[in-house]
């Protein structure tokens, strides 16, 4: 059970890596757009995160306040990706504030995961 949970944590981290990595690529090459890869990263992190939010394979209590905050931030990132993709389609560009918010919120969720125990 414990090993299975560690595998789900690994999948969760892959989701984070795909989402944040795809965002960094756009930030560095100056395109500042949302991409399908970001959607995939978020979806992988979301599914694995929800599986991890159930108390199995551990002997300690989960911090549900922390998980609730992470879930709200994840939904905000999802909304930004969805609205951003629509804006891009219509106008051909993404408001810079939306682009930066996606990266900052993603990093915030990773920081909450690691720092808030
Ligand atoms: C973009 C969204 C998210 C990012 C970037 C993210 C990032 C991370 C990272 C980096 C870790 C590893 C921390 C560590 O092991 O110290 C982690 C662990 C975890 N995440 Fe997330 N997360 C996200 C969304 C969620 C959501 C929505 C949930 C559930 C509501 C969730 C539940 C968990 C749990 C339970 C763990 C701990 C795994 C364990 O030790 O058993 N995450 N997350």
TrEMBL record:
Keyword Transmembrane helix: yes
Top-level taxon in the UniProt lineage: Bacteria
Transmembrane segments: 6-25, 37-58, 64-85, 97-116
Sorted UniProt keywords: Membrane, Transmembrane, Transmembrane helix
Name the record gives this protein: Fe-S protein
Organismal lineage: Bacteria, Bacillati, Actinomycetota, Actinomycetes, Micrococcales
């Amino acid at each position: 059970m414990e090993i299975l949970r560690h595998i789900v944590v690994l999948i969760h981290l892959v989701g984070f890596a795909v989402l944040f990595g795809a965002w960094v690529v756009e930030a560095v090459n100056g395109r500042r757009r949302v991409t399908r890869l970001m959607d995939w990263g978020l979806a992988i992190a979301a599914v694995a995160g929800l599986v991890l939010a159930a108390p199995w394979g551990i002997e300690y209590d989960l911090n549900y306040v922390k998980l609730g905050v992470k879930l709200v931030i994840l939904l905000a990132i999802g909304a930004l990706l969805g609205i951003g993709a629509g804006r891009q389609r219509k106008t051909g560009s993404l408001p810079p504030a939306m682009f930066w918010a996606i990266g900052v919120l993603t990093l915030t969720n990773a920081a909450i995961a690691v720092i808030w125990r």
